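User: Structure please.
Assistant: Input sequence and predicted structure:
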Amino acid sequence: MLIDARALPNNEALNADVCIAGSGAAGMSLAREFAGAQFSVILLEGGGLKFEHRSQFLHRGQSTGRAFPPPENTRRRQFGGTTTTWFGRCRPLDEIDFEARPAIPNSGWPFPKSQLDPFFVRASKLCQLDSGDFHVQNDVLAAAGLESKLFRFSPPTNFGEAYLDELEASSNVRVVIHANAAEIELDPSGVKATRILCLTLNRKRIPVSARIFILAAGGMENPRLLLNSRGVHSTGIGNSGDLVGRYFMEHIYSFTAAVTDLPSGFPEEYLRLNYESFQRQIAPTPAVGFPESLMREEGLPNAAAFFVRRPIHKTDDRFYSSRMQGFINLVETMGHRRAPSRRVVQYARGTIANARTVMTLMGIAARAKLRGLSQYAIQLQLEPVPNRESRITLADARDNLGLRQACVDWKLSAQDLAGLRRCEDLLLKGLETCGLRTRRIQHERDAEGWPIFMPSSKHHMGTTRMSTDPKSGVVDADCRLHEVGNLYVASSSVFPTAGMANPTLTIVALAVRLADHIKRVLG
């Protein structure tokens, strides 16, 4: 059943055995696993079936740390969540990602990868992958001290479009759109959730009661909702140890080098990614990474390098300078890849002030397009070190529902920067041994030594991290809050470490694992 909360009477009470807040990869996977069960389910979504600016603006927030895109440009508030815009790149986390590594502070999951492996198989089907096999071998790379890392690609699956009909047809699942989870209400003891209060943009209040609640709203909205829920605990729910919102992680992205010469016979399966044009149903594509033995020996972060076809002007050093940033931001805003912002005037001024550089690169771009020229670039994707001071807090500013906005303070450490540089050196040296020639891109760098141009991965992780000890995390190994017996989290926000793989497949695997646990709890 599909319900629009805006059409319900004000204060219409809804009840179910399980309430899921969020309809992205995690929430939709849970609802689909619950369809046909002997208990009732409500799936809440703050947006509509299609994209709406008014709903999207509820994601607006602030940033106080290193440069970070406006939060409303990194998530999607609509049915299907951010699966409506994702690229489809999938890979499970590696075994080493679950280990407590001496060289990586705050690393380690409460269980080994082997416990999650069966759920990766089921997650692969939900993501509509052609196979759940991620093994690949390249002896030439291995001889150079490198290792192939296979990624598979979802079509990409829009979970909202793919699974709506199935949920509508289910007798035990109600999908409620335009229902923005605003506050989690607890009983007087503070250890049991009783309701989620939902608000609509047409000023309706919809309280939802359940036996079990699952937050599946993502790495920013999950901590924001917990921190905004202060009816019993003045610091928010699950936050007695001041850990909600901490350990915020994003993958570190950097275009490291341009490929100047590919050796004869270089395997074409490494060269399938084309950032010049939109791609659907990409064939399995290996990236280049490092053996786990080398990561342990050198204390390296996990990393993967992709060969991607790029327009010529986007491998020019000048593209990676502060002079181009206003123009890049302006193009993304005008092309609807960013939400409209007051900053558009600032972007336009930056473009005008650096018109010579902009015009030079646009001339290069135009000539290259006429001649059909492009170049492969090497894009490095790196895991960050979990950092307690990197965090999501609440800003003083409020959204159109009256809720305090999220404030992002994204921090990277000197260890992260050293890891990036060491991975770049090892990668390019190994590729040279294989006969591949590259030119390092000379990035303009900030005062700390980081590239000025470092695009956001939009992979928000770690803000309700998983742990066996309540003193070091927010949820336990079953993704249940340590402090609230019937409140769970399904999201990359529970990741203790990020690994180098895109998070969606692991998000879905954890959701399916949680679904099995909830079924056991409810009998």
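The longest strand covers residues 205-215.
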